[in-house]
Amino acid sequence: KAGVTQTPRYLIKTRGQQVTLSCSPISGHRSVSWYQQTPGQGLQFLFEYFSETQRNKGNFPGRFSGRQFSNSRSEMNVSTLELGDSALYLCASSLSTGYATEAFFGQGTRLTVV
Amino acid sequence: AQRVTQPEKLLSVFKGAPVELKCNYSYSGSPELFWYVQYSRQRLQLLLRHISRESIKGFTADLNKGETSFHLKKPFAQEEDSAMYYCALSNSNTGKLIFGQGTTLQVKP
């Protein structure tokens, strides 16, 4: 079966712009989480959606937002981009949110802010 | 605060040598612990999880609640084990994972 798909793979944006990243989870998976990966901070949790509802949010400013659609696809939006937002953004999907559920990761979207 | 600490950024061993990647956590409760691995040019994937008590690719990890540790071990390292390893914990019934900073394992021939 197809894995988690993230589009686009690469993005270059200018400071002050906004960007939308997309994630298509594995078919049947209802939980989608987003992570930011940087060399300095490592992998940091952004937020998690389950059945179109945000269930968890990490410690990121309100410029970072997301949503999930009825087909479980998710989008993440970053407004007023800053240079520090340059990172690899990973999406992960899970079959459920049961204890110790395995997360399946996409290949990520590499965002560069110039 | 919930935290995962991997003290080594890089661990370099020779093929056939034992490997231990350290992971310590702080969490008030009963976390579930995982090891995820990222091979070169591949996506992050689950290696093993505490609840399964399984051995994957020769790796094992034992949860030590007294020392709040979940170290990853393999008795004989192989070159194909070279990768980035992340220890992670999750809480309750959500999909949120808290990751350590990761350890790069380099297995030399």
In short:
The complex is a heterodimer of chains A (114) and B (109). In chain A, 0% of the residues lie in helices and 53% in strands.
Question: How does this structure look, described?
Answer:
The complex is a heterodimer of chains A (114) and B (109). Chain A is mainly β and 114 residues long. Chain A has no helices and eleven strands. Helix content of chain B is 0%, strand content 50%. Chain B is built from no helices and eleven strands. In chain B, strands 2, 5, 6, 9, 10 and 11 form a six-stranded mixed beta sheet that branches. Chain B has a three-stranded antiparallel beta sheet with strand order 3-8-7, with no helix packed on it.
Q: List SSEs of chain B in N-to-C order.
A: EEEEEEEEEEE
Structural class of chain A: mainly beta
Average pLDDT across residues of chain A?
93
Give the amount of beta strand of chain A, in percent.
over 45%
What's the helix count of chain A? 0
Instruction: Indicate the mean pLDDT of chain B.
Output: 92
What's the helical proportion of residues of chain B? Answer: under 10%
Short key terms for the protein model shown above:
heterodimer, A: 114 residues, seven-stranded mixed beta sheet, four-stranded antiparallel beta sheet, globular, B: 109 residues, mainly beta, six-stranded mixed beta sheet, 11 strands
Map the helices and strands.
The complex is a heterodimer of chains A (114) and B (109).
Chain A: E1 5-7, E2 10-13, E3 19-24, E4 31-38, E5 42-50, E6 53-57, E7 64-68, E8 74-78, E9 87-94, E10 104-105, E11 109-113
Chain B: E1 3-5, E2 10-14, E3 19-21, E4 24-26, E5 32-38, E6 45-49, E7 60-64, E8 69-74, E9 83-90, E10 97-99, E11 103-108
Parallel strand pairs in B: 2-11
Antiparallel strand pairs in B: 1-4, 3-8, 5-6, 5-9, 7-8, 9-10, 9-11
